Each structure stands twice: as structure tokens, then as C-alpha cells.
Structure to design on (858 residues):
């Protein structure tokens, strides 16, 4: 094949050689660019610690600090495997608190918020009570909604369950199921779910009304089942006329008539009070959270009436409600919600978060009067199903209309009523009539919380 | 006689080593496919020596195909099996390229017209896949005609440029238009066909090859500069015309801002490359499954993760070796058409490597083409083997 060709081509041979040498140099130069790029990305650039890099190997080759409950029991810990370390979670529902930490799916929740501390081996101590968390996880199983238990005196979150959830121990097996699940298990309903509160707002409205002296506890009302504000009717649940009742009985039996009138009288002052209770604000927890929504201060009387019964433009998250109800339980003093109480270990200084009060939202006597109304609701009113044997309990149900499907049902309450150790909030999406669904569940959650809290206390 | 066989034995050793590394992590039920690929290439090398041709191109090609098979098998056995089929078809395509008179036949318009016809058929009967209408099904065989059409186009361009060389200089002024005209008109209509199919990677590729080839043959820097301007304005025009190109361009310019969407793939590729460092994690030890569509051109990022900079530079070197052998064969030919054809094919091959690897390295926007001989796709594999066959036939003394 390399036999020389004589004659006419010989003259052009040098030219041809030059052409191909030029072509080769051209290709060599472009490939040199590629090799330059490879050297840069593979030997010079350092993307290992990049927050978007889910394949950062180093962090999986060393143990990571644990996330523990208030008694030091691990919620999330690193377990050694033959190829490094794997994160193990105490219970599937904790992933809405701890988040998950996974080579493929990245990190979320406290794992993400405290990544720098955890990756240096520090321990993050939460306020969660793991036995209560597990018990509430069982109680919520199969429902769609959220339950929060809080220590009203400190604002500490004792348990936080959102169902359905993503199991941090089973991400590899179930990831595609989670993605396809129409109930969106990735959403933490306890802090991200925004719902109309319905009648569950009434304790707050009543607190504001007492504080503003717009009503007093034994004030008589006549409830005919409906009231007209600016020509538009606001009706009681199923149009039931409650007749002659006091303000406290209006709370116990959830009179829309009385609360629409109270709210219409309070007007913009109601909005101020609700915002002081923490509604419409993002709570200061290290989790991705929703703000909820407060309505605009420009409302007609009818509009205020709707807000007074927990509709209108009002949206709240379960955690916000837990905080607000805790404030009523705590003599009107709103505490800063608390989830992480301590980060310590390694060479870093420990960081401690102590319980802190925000504001006195309503006077102590007003909070006590609202509590009496809530006790009445559990004794004889709509929250009867939440009653605990031998323990005075304060509670309130809420059935919030949704655009479509069954109503959302709420229960808010605390126990023991006169020396509260725990406040709980339960929301069931499309749960139906709250007095039959959320109230019994709320009672069970309260009982579990008391059982978990009484022995040690915080 | 014996000496040529030594590198093939060495190659067998390398592939065996790769298999041994794989066996640490997964079962090797299909190991015989790799053996068959090696045997097929080595057997063909033996045969081409018997025919009086060169076998040197087959060696780097076998290493690339073998490497591709190993990494596809590491990802998913079905992908490797597809690669195996492609390699077997590719050996046939190599023979067709080697035996046919592709570089000496005078019927230049046949190539051009059949390329256009292939593309037109795809447009009419094609099937959509991955945002482009790129597949043609004939009975049970499903293939991507554009892979073959671009080779035909380069065959056509190479010949046209040589035959009209004296007139293809800018000095001719408007008189040269009679020669430029048909070529530009033809290329323009082919690009329109590709644009309608939303398959812009091959259009860009053929255009770049055309620019490089005509500049080199005519030997004019002015021409190269003019093509540069044309490329940039064409690129801008394409950005305005095609919204999906705009997303790609945005992902290219700022992948960090598009980390969850269009930039995800390129970022995962860069992370994989970066995690490989100089020596790599070892075969099977990377996290290549994290890269979406890793079996396509992004197999290169996986190789970078598991074989490191050493592996990626070796792969680039193999492509460079193929280009070098091709150019050396071309320079030994005495037929200007054959020379130009070989040069065109080398440029086509190399430009695809450059565009694809440059896209993964974020030097260029992603073009969505395959990495020659290495990534998943039997049409592409067959077409590239065909190209190597044509190259191997260059300069061969034919008995007439």
C-alpha cells in the first residue's frame, strides 16, 4: 500500500503532507482543549463539598453526629457498614423532623439545617419525646393529616407527626412510590400544610374579645341558628338554634352566630390579636415552613364574621395553632416554639437554646376564661369525645369547609386543664365532622402525651 | 506475521482485567459477549491483513467498544447486550466500508441525494423519541438514519469540494457562485430537514466538518473566519427559533441556577468527573447511576469517575490515535478525492468527539449526540464502524 506512485503526484506530495500535518495539529489543538477541561474538572476543581453534590463521598466515609430526642435517644444515627456509614432513623415518622441524609437523594430537615455541625460529629438534641412520637405515629396511621404535641410552658415541640411520611430508612426501595403517591408524603403537613381553621379559631377569637372587653364570660346571648350581617346569613353547623346561651356555652357548643357577631364587633382588632398569637408568621424552627395567611384588614362586617368562624381568607398551619393554643394554656403568654435545644460535641462550643417567651398576648384572666369555655366544650360541648377519664381537659373542635370533598377536621386542646403539661393539635384532611373524628383522636393523643410526659417532665 | 497479534493479546489482558474488576460487584453472566467482541475485532484484523489492508484502526476501536461494553454492563446488562449487537452489526459495517468503493466511486450526487432521501424518509415515517423525530423502523430493525446520512453527506461534500476546488476560492468573486450555489443550496435544504426534525446536533456537526474541510482544502484563513461568523450568527438564529435550545443554552451558561432542571444532568456529570480525581474510584465504585441518561454520551463522565483522569485522557488519546492513523492513511493515498474523503471522515469523527466531550466538560453546550464507539446506540456504533472501514480502505492498492 505504501508503494511510491511516480509521476504527476510526486510534486504535490509535500503539499499533501503539509495539509495532513495541519489537519492533525488542528485536531490535536481541539483535543488539547478537552484535556485541559478534564484536568481542570478532575484534578483542580473541588466540588466535593458542594451543597448540590449528592455524591460527596467523604461525608459517607465518616460517622456523622446523631440527632437525639430530649432524653438522648437517637432519632437519627450513623451506622457503620462495609462501605462506610449509613444513616438510620428511629421511626419512619421522624423524617418530617430530622429529614433524611442520603447519597442519592441529598438531605432535608434538620439533617440539612444542622449539616455543618452534624458532619463534624456534633450531636443535635431536640425537644422531641421519642416514645410519644412513636405513639402518635401509630394513632395517625392511615389518616391524612398532622398532629403536634407541645409543652405549653416552654414551647418545646414534644412530637410532630405528619401522615403520610417518607421513611428515611427505605428511600432506595420506596422512592418511586413516594413520588407517585398522590397524598404527597414529602409535604410536612404539621408545618407546611395551610388549612382554614374553622371553629378551632374560636378560642383565639374569644381571647381577643375578652381582652378587648367586647364580651364577658357569663354574658347572655340568644342564638336563633343564623345571623344576618349586611344581608348575608352566617349559619350554625346544620342550622341548629342554640337558644339562650352564655358566651362560654357559645364556645362549648361552637355557636357561629355569637362568634360572627363578636368578630364583627372586634373588626381589625381581631386581626392584631391573631397576628400576636403568631398566625401569618413563619415560626422560628429550622425546618421549611409555611406562613399561612392573614386576611386583609379591609373587611365588611360579613367578612369579619367569616373570619370569626375560621373561614374567609384565613389559613393556618398546625404548628401555628399548637403555639397559639399553648399560649392560652400558658396564661396568655406565647412561648417561642422550640425544636432543637442543644448542639454540642467535638471541638466546637456547645450551643444551647433556652425556652423564651414572646409576648403576653392576652391577660391571664382572659386566658383563664377561654380555658373554662374549652373545659365546658369537653364536658358538655362539641369536644365531648376528647374527654380523659379523671383529668380535666380543655378542647375545641373545628370543622373547616373546603372547596371540594369532605370538610377538614381539627381538634385543639390541652391537659390537665388547670395545670397544662401538654397542648395538642390534630388536623385530618377531609376528616369530616370534627366532633366525631378529630375529637376522639385528639383525646387519645392527649392521653398518650400525658402518659409520656408525666414521669420525667422536662 | 506473529508480531501484529501481540497488541491484541495485550488488549485481551486489559479487557480481562476490567471483567475481573466488574466481577467484584456483579455477576458476569454475559462475559462471553466481551470475548466475542474481542474475537470479532481480532478476527477482522486478521482478515484485513489477508486482504492486504491495514488493521491498525481496529485496535483502538476494539478497546473503545470493549470499554463501552464494560461500563454499560456495569450499569445494566440489557444496555451491554445492545452494545454487543451493535458491535456485531458494526463489524459488518466495517467490512462494507472497507470493501466498497466509497472513496473512489465518481457518483457523488448519489451520496448527497441518498442522505437527503434518508432524512426526508425520517421526516415522513419517523418516530419521535427524546424531543427529536429521529427513528426509522424497517420491519423489526429500528435505526437512526441521521447517523448514516451524515457520513453520506461528508462523502458528498468531500468529493464536491475537491472536484470544484479551483473555483471554490473567494478570489473568483461572483463567478464562483455557480459552484458554491448548488453546494450551499443542497446543504441548506439538508439542514432545514434536520431542523424540522429538531435534530440539530448532527446539523451542527456536518456544518463544522464542511467548514473545516473546505477551509483546509481551499487553504484560506479568510474562509475560516467567514465560517466562524456564519456559525455564530446561525447559532443565534437557532436560539431564537427553538425554545428547547434556549433551555439548553441557559443550562450551559449557568447550570448552578438550573440545578434542579435543565442543568441537572451536566452538573451530575461534572460532579462525577470531579469525584473521580486522577486515579478514579475503580470500576463499579462510582455513583454513576445518579447521572440521568448515563448510558448515552454521559458514559464518559462515569468513566471519568471510575477510571479517573488517567481513564479519560486515555480515551481521548484513543480517539486521537484513530485520527492520526486515519490521516496517515489519507496522506499515503494518491487520489485527491480519496484524500479529501478520508480527511472529511476523520474530521467528522473527531468533531463529534469534541462536541460531545466539550459538552460534558461545559466548554460547549450539550448537543445530545453519542460518543463514537463508546456510548449506547447501535446505529451510531454501526455508522462509526462504517467510517473506520472507509478510512481503512484509503490508500489500499486495488487489483483492477
Amino acid at each position: 500500500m505504501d508503494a511510491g506512485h511516480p509521476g504527476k503526484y510526486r510534486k504535490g506530495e509535500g503539499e499533501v503532507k503539509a495539509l495532513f500535518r495541519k489537519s492533525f495539529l488542528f485536531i490535536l489543538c481541539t483535543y488539547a482543549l478537552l484535556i485541559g477541561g478534564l484536568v481542570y474538572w478532575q484534578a483542580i476543581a473541588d466540588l466535593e463539598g458542594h451543597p448540590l453534590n449528592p455524591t460527596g463521598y467523604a461525608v459517607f466515609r465518616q460517622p456523622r453526629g446523631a440527632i437525639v430526642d430530649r432524653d438522648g435517644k437517637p432519632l437519627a444515627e450513623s451506622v457503620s457498614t462495609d462501605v462506610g456509614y449509613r444513616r438510620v432513623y428511629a421511626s419512619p415518622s421522624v423524617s418530617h423532623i430530622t429529614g433524611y441524609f442520603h447519597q442519592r437523594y441529598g438531605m432535608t430537615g434538620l439533617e440539612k439545617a444542622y449539616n455543618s455541625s452534624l458532619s463534624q460529629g456534633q450531636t443535635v438534641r431536640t425537644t422531641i419525646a421519642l416514645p410519644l412520637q412513636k405513639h402518635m405515629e401509630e394513632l395517625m396511621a392511615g389518616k391524612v393529616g398532622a398532629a403536634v404535641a407541645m409543652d405549653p410552658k416552654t414551647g418545646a415541640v414534644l412530637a410532630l407527626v405528619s401522615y403520610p411520611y417518607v421513611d428515611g430508612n427505605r428511600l432506595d426501595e420506596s422512592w418511586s412510590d413516594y413520588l407517585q403517591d398522590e397524598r404527597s408524603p414529602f409535604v410536612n403537613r404539621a408545618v407546611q400544610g395551610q388549612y382554614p381553621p374553622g371553629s378551632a379559631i374560636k378560642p383565639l377569637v374569644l381571647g381577643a374579645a375578652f381582652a378587648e372587653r367586647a364580651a364577658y364570660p357569663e354574658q347572655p346571648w340568644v342564638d336563633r341558628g343564623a345571623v344576618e350581617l349586611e344581608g348575608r346569613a352566617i349559619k350554625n353547623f346544620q342550622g341548629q338554634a342554640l337558644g339562650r346561651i352564655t358566651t362560654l356555652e357559645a364556645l362549648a357548643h361552637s355557636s357561629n352566630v355569637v362568634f360572627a357577631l363578636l368578630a364583627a364587633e372586634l373588626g381589625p382588632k381581631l386581626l392584631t390579636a391573631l397576628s400576636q398569637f403568631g398566625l401569618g408568621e413563619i415560626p422560628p424552627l429550622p425546618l421549611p415552613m409555611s406562613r399561612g395567611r392573614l386576611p386583609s384588614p379591609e373587611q365588611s362586617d360579613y367578612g369579619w364574621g367569616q373570619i370569626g368562624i375560621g373561614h374567609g381568607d384565613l389559613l393556618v398551619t398546625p404548628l401555628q395553632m399548637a403555639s397559639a393554643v399553648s399560649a392560652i394554656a400558658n396564661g396568655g403568654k406565647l412561648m417561642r416554639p422550640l425544636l432543637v435545644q442543644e448542639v454540642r460535641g467535638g471541638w466546637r462550643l456547645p450551643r444551647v437554646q433556652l425556652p423564651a417567651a414572646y409576648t403576653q398576648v392576652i391577660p391571664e384572666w382572659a386566658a383563664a376564661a377561654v380555658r373554662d369555655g374549652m373545659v365546658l366544650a369537653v364536658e358538655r360541648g362539641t369536644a365531648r369525645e376528647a374527654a380523659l377519664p379523671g383529668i380535666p381537659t380543655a378542647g375545641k373542635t373545628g370543622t373547616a369547609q373546603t372547596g371540594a370533598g369532605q370538610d377538614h377536621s381539627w381538634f385543639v386542646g390541652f391537659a390537665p386543664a388547670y395545670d397544662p403539661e401538654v397542648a395538642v393539635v390534630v388536623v385530618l384532611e377531609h376528616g369530616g365532622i370534627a366532633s366525631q373524628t378529630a375529637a376522639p383522636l385528639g383525646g387519645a393523643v392527649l392521653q398518650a402525651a400525658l402518659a409520656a410526659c408525666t414521669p420525667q417532665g422536662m | 506475521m506473529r508480531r501484529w497479534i501481540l497488541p491484541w493479546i495485550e488488549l485481551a489482558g486489559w479487557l480481562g482485567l476490567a471483567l475481573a474488576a466488574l466481577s467484584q460487584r456483579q455477576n458476569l453472566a454475559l462475559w462471553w459477549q466481551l470475548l466475542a467482541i474481542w474475537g470479532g475485532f481480532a478476527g477482522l484484523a486478521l482478515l484485513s491483513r489477508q486482504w492486504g489492508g491495514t488493521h491498525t484502526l481496529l485496535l483502538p476501536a476494539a478497546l473503545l467498544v470493549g470499554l463501552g461494553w464494560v461500563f454499560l454492563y456495569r450499569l445494566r446488562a440489557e444496555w451491554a447486550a445492545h452494545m454487543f449487537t451493535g458491535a456485531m452489526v458494526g463489524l459488518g459495517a466495517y467490512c462494507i466500508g472497507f470493501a466498497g468503493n466509497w472513496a473512489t466511486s465518481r457518483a457523488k450526487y448519489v451520496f448527497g441525494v441518498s442522505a437527503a432521501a434518508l432524512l426526508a424518509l425520517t421526516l415522513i415515517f419517523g418516530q419521535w423519541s427524546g424531543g427529536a423525530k429521529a427513528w426509522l423502523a424497517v420491519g423489526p430493525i429500528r435505526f437512526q438514519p441521521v447517523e448514516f446520512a451524515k457520513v453520506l453527506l461528508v462523502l458528498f461534500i468531500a468529493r464536491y469540494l475537491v472536484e470544484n476546488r479551483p473555483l471554490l476560492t473567494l478570489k473568483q468573486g461572483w463567478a464562483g457562485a455557480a459552484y458554491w450555489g448548488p453546494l450551499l443550496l443542497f446543504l441548506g435544504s439538508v439542514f432545514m430537514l434536520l431542523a424540522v426534525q429538531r435534530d440539530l446536533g448532527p446539523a451542527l456537526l456536518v456544518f463544522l466538518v464542511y467548514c473545516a474541510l473546505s477551509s483546509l482544502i481551499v487553504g484560506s484563513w479568510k474562509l475560516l473566519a467567514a465560517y466562524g461568523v456564519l456559525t455564530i450568527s446561525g447559532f443565534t438564529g437557532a436560539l431564537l427559533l427553538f425554545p428547547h435550545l434556549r433551555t439548553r443554552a441557559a443550562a450551559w451558561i449557568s447550570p448552578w441556577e438550573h440545578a434542579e432542571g435543565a442543568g441537572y444532568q451536566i452538573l451530575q456529570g461534572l460532579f462525577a468527573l470531579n469525584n473521580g480525581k486522577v486515579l478514579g474510584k475503580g470500576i463499579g465504585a462510582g455513583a454513576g447511576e445518579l447521572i440521568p441518561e448515563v448510558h448515552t454520551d454521559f458514559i464518559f463522565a462515569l468513566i471519568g469517575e471510575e477510571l479517573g483522569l488517567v481513564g479519560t485522557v486515555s480515551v481521548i488519546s484513543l480517539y486521537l490515535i484513530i485520527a492520526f492513523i486515519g490521516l496517515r492513511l489519507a496522506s499515503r493515498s494518491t487520489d485527491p478525492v480519496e484524500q479529501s474523503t478520508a480527511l472529511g471522515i476523520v474530521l467528522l469523527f473527531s468533531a463529534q468527539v469534541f462536541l460531545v466531550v466539550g459538552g460534558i466538560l461545559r466548554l460547549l453546550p450539550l448537543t445530545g449526540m453519542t460518543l463514537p464507539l463508546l456510548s449506547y446506540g447501535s446505529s451510531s456504533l454501526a455508522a462509526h464502524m462504517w467510517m473506520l472501514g472507509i478510512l481503512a480502505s484509503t490508500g489500499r492498492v486495488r487489483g483492477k
